[in-house]
Structures are given as structure tokens and as C-alpha cells.
Amino acid sequence: MAAQVSFDLKEVDAVRKMLAEAALDSNDRQRLLGSIGVEMESQTKERFGTQRSPDGESWKALAQKTQDYYMSKGKGHRSLLVGEGLLRDSITSEVQEGASSVLVGATMEYAAVHQFGATITPKTAKALAVPGYGMLRKVVIPARPYLGVSQNDAAVIASAVSEFLGRGFK
After folding, report:
1. How far apart are CA 49 and CA 87, in angstroms?
2. Is the model's pLDDT at 70 over the cut of 90?
3. 94 domain residue, yes or no
4. Quick one: which of 89, 119, 154, 170 has the most CB atoms within 10 Å?
5. Distance separating alpha carbons of residues 91 and 87, to the nearest angstrom
């Protein structure tokens, strides 16, 4: 994955306590982690609509010049980071070997740039050609975190684990 955040069940105290009391075989653990991964994918994709990080912070708005450029191209009414939806649609989860954790991440090559931010400088030229801006010596893209576990995510995960354990592993 181009950008990922691993979610280890030990990070959520309520989940850890429930699992400590339950005897899960590897198939049950894999199914549980798979369902948690799917839930985390859903929660992560919702952030593209709310434009907030897992911590609840609003994503930094696009620069006015960037907004003007998108408007001039008829693309001014898109949400931040959505564009054609490729980044959002690349959110995926994967249960790790041994079924002890699940990875949630994005597969697009630029996923980490948007998650962590970046300063881009030319490698072979004196400047970068940036649509709407012209030639620039560097481009700074602010971090707009979309991967991670919010307090609400942790509560949903704890509820899903509780429900899973209450079902008797069907």
C-alpha cells in the first residue's frame, strides 16, 4: 500500500479486554479482523465527505489560486482529495498473516503525500510546471490525514467485537 495505518487490537482497551476473555481460534480471529477492516475502510471513506482527520481537525482548504484554477476548468465543486475519487476508492484493508492485526491503507502512489503532506522540488529542472501557478521552485502540499482511528471508530470497533463475541462465532 502507498499509505497505511496499522490497527492492532491492543490499541483499543475495551477490545483488548473482550478478546482476552474470549478464546478465538485463528479462523474466528481472521473473520473478526476482516470485519473490523471493512468497517475501518467505510469510516475512512466517510472522511472524504466530512473533510476531517481522525482527530476531528478540519483539513486545510485548497489555496485560493488552486480553487480558481479548478473553477476555470469546471471542476470547482469537488470535495478536497476527491477529484475523480481514485484515492478514496483505493482505501482497502488486509488482515495480516497470523491474524493478529489488520492494515487499512490506500494504494494510490500519491496517498502518502496527502496523508502526511510533502514538499515537492524538481529533480532535474530548475522549476516545476504547476497548472494555474506557472513555474515554481517547490510545491508544498499540506497534510490532510484521512487514515487513522478516531474515538468514534474505536467505539464502533468495540461494539462490533462485542456483537461478534455475543453471536457465538457463527
Report:
1. 13
2. no
3. yes
4. 154
5. 7
